[in-house]
Amino acid sequence: MNNTSDTTPSPLQLQAVTTLAARRAGEHVMANLHRRCDFNSNLRTDVKHKLDVEAQDIAESVIKEIFPAHDILGEETCDQPLDNTDWLWIIDPIDGTINFFHGLPWWCCSVAVRFKGETIAGSVFIPEMGLMYEAACNGPALCNGDVIKVSETKDISLSMLATGADKWDLDGRAFRFMRKIAEMAQRPRILGAAAVDMCMVASGRIDGYFESGIYTWDMAAGALIIERAGGQTDILKQYPNHRMAFLATNGRLHQTCKNELLPMLDE
């Protein structure tokens, strides 16, 4: 697809680019599974992997070939200034890096695009499971081309809710959230890759997802996919440097979850 300054791409065209960029990044990582331990740094709280950088470069090259003037916000280059254009592409080259590093297939490549702050299209590729989730702002949520919908669970006590326990929060705050979710749900889950968890919400396999501190690149594509699958998302609290407290549910459980979790953010 060629783009010129006087041509505005359609949401479906943008979806095709987010999907291509996510797939190309994921295929590169899959071709280099033998390099799982090829990291720049391995810390107690995180792994900085060389394939993260390479996968982001590949996703960026796909985008820049078609939209050279558009801004890009990537996890690996988030400290670089943006040009404040109307168009912003958001890349998480490997969401779930620690899972990937340890050989767990619960990781993905996520790409989204926003126009004047509104997410227009997004794709999440889960390479080791062979799953491509995608959506545009005016179309259905898809998994491998098939339309997906959120669950119909209405009773919070019969729900499965996913969350995280980030080590930035080891003063006990994260564990209070985990306890609250365990009290509300039939089963809580910590799976370690936000965008994958969100895709499970979109496809009705999980009823909701909450994280007290994730980043824009973790949720940009997944949030749109959930919304187009009939679910609901909320930024419950905004922090500096693209970080936020985020809630996504099937919609039926949303207000209950929000009522329980939102007050805890101010404690």
List the helices and strands and how they pair.
Elements: H1 11-30, E1 39-42, E2 47-49, H2 50-66, E3 71-74, E4 87-95, H3 97-102, E5 108-115, E6 118-126, E7 131-136, E8 142-143, E9 146-147, E10 160-163, H4 173-184, E11 187-190, H5 194-202, E12 208-215, H6 216-228, E13 232-238, E14 243-249, H7 254-261
Parallel strand pairs: 3-4, 10-11, 10-12
Antiparallel strand pairs: 1-2, 4-5, 5-6, 6-7, 7-8, 8-9, 12-14, 13-14
Helix pairs in contact: 1-2, 5-6
Indicate how many domains the architecture comprises.
2
Structural class: alpha+beta
The counted number of beta strands is 14
CATH topology of the largest domain, by name, is Fructose-1,6-Bisphosphatase, Chain A, domain 1
Largest sheet: 7 strands, mixed
Distance between the termini: 50 Å
Helix tally?
Answer: 7
CATH class of the largest domain reads: Alpha Beta
User: What is the CATH superfamily classification of the largest domain?
Assistant: Fructose-1,6-Bisphosphatase, subunit A, domain 1
Radius of gyration: 18 Å
Tell the overall outline. Answer: globular
Classify the helix fraction into a percent range: 25-40%
Q: Give the SSE string.
A: HEEHEEHEEEEEEHEHEHEEH
Strand content of the residues, in percent?
25-35%
At CATH level 2, the architecture of the largest domain is 2-Layer Sandwich
Strand order of the largest sheet: 3-4-5-6-7-8-9
Uncertain residue ranges: 41-45
